[in-house]
Write a structure and sequence with these properties.
Length: 281
């Protein structure tokens, strides 16, 4: 288990216990399997008690058994690395251009190409001759035959361009680029794919999380209270749920059955960005 993951689990557990539930924490430890993720000694009702917390993060686009986890989280990780590389490049050499990227297939990009993606993007933006409007939308053209590469522009501010061979990574992964002249050094270029998604609270997604964690074999401390915490942490666009649901919204029979038959004494769902939580068991 990576140390960064254990630090994150402890941070989320501490925030939930102390900031959300108002508990006094005497001790909080990260644990590795077959132990639950966190071991906490807390004060509750003027008594010292032990709570062990198995933690899983809610992503609305992840599916049970899906390899690689949430596509939205992977995309968020890729674009975060692109932005880090962009920031270093644009901080050293000013560029008064704002860029919005739309990927052709958001699931195709990998973290290891992020620096090269950023390098090509900056090089392209520095070399583009923006029209008199100061804005243009470029559709990346992927010609099947060499003679098709001379595809003509459609207008001054919206045209089709073949980026091969000078920008092979952009040519492969980008669908459209929108560039705008600005009066400042723009350091935060955006990706539309990583900025919007269908989000919400899906009972079947929660049920899958509960059943998946229930199938694990745990080694519990003596006299500990066993918790499952499902957290929508909000680090990516797919890691949020919605404003708090009315009571009727939690009456999903399969979700309730999964919680009831689970080995946990308590099951919580916590929407961190919207600042609410619900006890499901």
């Amino acid at each position: 288990m990576r140390s960064s993951q254990k630090v994150r689990e402890k941070l989320l557990a501490r925030e939930f216990l102390h900031d959300v539930l108002g508990m006094t924490i005497y001790r909080l430890l990260g644990r590795s399997p077959p132990r639950a993720d966190c071991y906490a000694v807390i004060q509750r009702n003027e008594q010292t008690e032990i709570i062990e917390i198995e933690l899983t993060e809610y992503q609305v686009d992840s599916l049970a058994g899906q390899k690689g986890g949430s596509p939205g989280v992977r995309l968020s990780s890729f674009w975060r690395k692109v932005k880090e590389s962009l920031f270093r490049r644009l901080s050293r050499h000013r560029l008064n251009v704002e860029v919005i990227v739309t990927l052709e297939d958001a699931s195709a990009v990998k973290n290891d190409i992020a620096p090269a993606f950023a390098e090509e993007l900056v090089r392209f933006a520095r070399g583009i001759d923006l029209p008199t409007t100061g804005m243009c939308t470029i559709t990346v053209f992927k010609p099947k035959f060499a003679r098709m590469a001379a595809y003509p522009p459609t207008s001054e501010d919206c045209f089709v361009k073949d980026l091969r061979p000078e920008f092979p990574i952009l040519a492969k992964f980008v669908g459209t680029l929108r560039l705008s002249k600005v009066t400042y050094n723009s350091l935060h270029w955006t990706c539309t794919n990583a900025s919007a998604a269908m989000v919400g609270l899906l009972p079947n997604r929660l049920e899958a999380d509960v059943r998946n964690k229930s199938r694990k074999t745990y080694k519990w401390a003596k006299n500990s209270e066993k918790w499952l915490l499902i957290c929508a942490a909000g680090d990516s666009i797919v890691g949020t749920a919605c404003p708090h649901l009315a009571v009727d919204g939690w009456q999903d029979e399969e979700l309730l059955a999964a919680c009831k038959t689970s080995p946990f004494d308590r099951v919580y769902f916590w929407d961190r960005p919207h600042r609410w939580h619900e006890r499901l068991k």
